[in-house]
Here is the input.
Amino acid sequence: MRHAFPVALASVVVLAGCAASAPVGVGDELSGTVTVLAAASLRDVFDDLADRFRSDYPDVEIVLGYGGSSGLAEQIISGAPADVFAAANPATMSTVSDAGLAVEPVVFATNTLQIAVPRGNPGNVAGIADLARPELAIALCDPTVPCGAAAVEVLDRAGVTASVDTLEEDVRAALTKAALGEVDAALVYRTDVIAAGGEVEAVEVPEASEVVNVYAISPLTEARNPEAARAFLDLVLSATGRTVLERAGFGAP
Amino acid sequence: MRPESPTRHRRTGPVVAVLAALGLALLVLPLLGLVLRAPWADLPALLVSIPVLQALGLSLGTASISTLVCLVFGIPLAVLLSHAVHWHVVPRRLLRAAITIPLVLPPVVGGIALLLLLGRRGIVGQWLAEIGITLPFTTGAVVIAQTFVAMPFLVFAVEGALRSADRRSELAAATLGARPAQTFRLVTLPLVAPGIAAGAVLCFTRALGEFGATITFAGSFPGVTRTLPIASYLAMNSDPDTAIALALVLLAVSLVVLLALRDRWLPGVVR
Amino acid sequence: MRLVADLTVPRSAFDVRAAFEVPEGRVLAIVGPNGAGKSSLLGAIAGLVEGSGALRLGDLDLLTLPAERRGVGVVFQDLVLFPHLSVRDNVAFGARVRDGSWTAARKRTAPWLARLDLVDLADRHPAQLSGGQAQRVALARALAAEPAVLLLDEPMAALDVEIRDDVRADLARHLREFGGPTILVSHDRDDASALADDVLVLERGVVMQQGALADLAESPATPWVQRFTR
Here is the structure.
């Protein structure tokens, strides 16, 4: 094994995750840059946590990149410099671990799908069965991203064939289309519906509770700033982190 | 014509040669990387797979239609621009700036603008929706997005050809009894035809490669709006081999189009 | 038909004012120093440049007509052959415009190729012609359109000095065969003496002297005329 340090780091992370721990001491001499790549649906939560991180560690510059988890995983495998990766499903995280690049993934949140409709629900969407109506414009995530994979399963369980108009490459793109009123319904995460505030309305999908996206986070073996990576991870897994996640609509792991 | 008199060749200085070589490397090496890393063994199967064929057919079809639209509206616009030299400077500059906008605008911004204009809640789009016409997520939207970004290429190429065409030929035609319409058909048009062809080629290849405006305005659905560039981008998420196959197809199509009109390229580019 | 002109042609530095007549079958040479306004005058007669006053061909008032209806043929100083057409089609152009078909036009204008010794060159394009050959094509093109008036702007200017005398002799022959009034512009005395019946001297837009070359030589009205006729 090339790096003994990441192994030690992994153990610490696991222990930190198990304990209701405080983050690494506020004001510790951490410096440099730490790059976090995260699934698009984590945008608001991680932006919030990043602000707190900045006030805790003013000497560290934290850089966040969001996108479809699978795309980010591909970038990491191709050598994109990152310190932390947070994926929206275990399969995507596995592609990174299989490449030997994830130190030790930890599950930290769950998410389920919900239908987002534009304000006023112009398409009169009452449930998942309405997604089959051909006269409606429907947006889903592409099956190659976690949100899309979940959507396929939910639709399958509900026995609905959706009349899809566009398959977006990340969940926020699908959400935006709903917020703009360009589609009558988009199947997105419930956290996205909450994040969009009053711009979209929610329509429940009972079958969605059976399809749970499990989010995992891991520092990366090629991390340039492993200490700061661990610090951010600690923050995500801490009580503060859990509160922020809960408020955004994420479920507990 | 008289045979060219022998000239002393100017030797390319070392500084120029080195910088030029680096510039060339920047342009050529990425393509070389693409070709070298291609999954050649799996390529035949990938190339005839449904996603690739759908994307290819869609891209070729929409780019062709977009080029036609650009010709129909772009040539008159180029004529207008060439006449604008006689205008007052302010409207002349405004006209040129307006035509240049899609060239300098990031394509995604162009897509957003199109959405705000022609989307279901757009300024014009909402009226279109009333009469049952919705543009987003249709193949028509792809054509609109491509035309938006590619038209300036055609307009400026044709305007250049019009400007360099000898206007005195038109005067000579008049002295021989040709009415303005006849002059345009028999003299002006044939003289600018190579420029129009070059412009059409540029327009087609730009339309073929269009991504940002298309994905924002038209969406992404296989066979309807998922053109080659969009399909390639999405495939990078999960299946890099397919992404490379799609990229190679795009590269091959572009090269074929450019080489097929090799002596009608931008004037001076090819001997 | 006789051409009667009394023209004012506005230019940037000065206006050109000239009154003259050219009977049919006669050649008038308009001579003068560079910048005198000779080409502008020609342009006004052809309808390519704004001019006012009077310009009559028989009963016809040419100033009311656009260039394409005046029947005034022009051989330009730089020839301005159509680069995309063959020699045959360049010559046939005037007929094509009238007949509406290239085939009919080519047949009608074929004799002109023979008259100007262009038959062997008929399939070439202007880029493949020598100076003398191109000048013959320009002349054939103008004549084949059967103009009522013929204008030539510095006809020898595009040619190498060695061949000028021969070409000039040929040109003199063709001009004699042309039935209408002819005006040629030149600053070269040999052109005037070999090609023209009468001479008009233009200096800074003003007619200084008109008449036969011999009369000008005998009593030159200005120093320039004196030098010109020496």
In short: The radius of gyration of chain B is 22 Å.
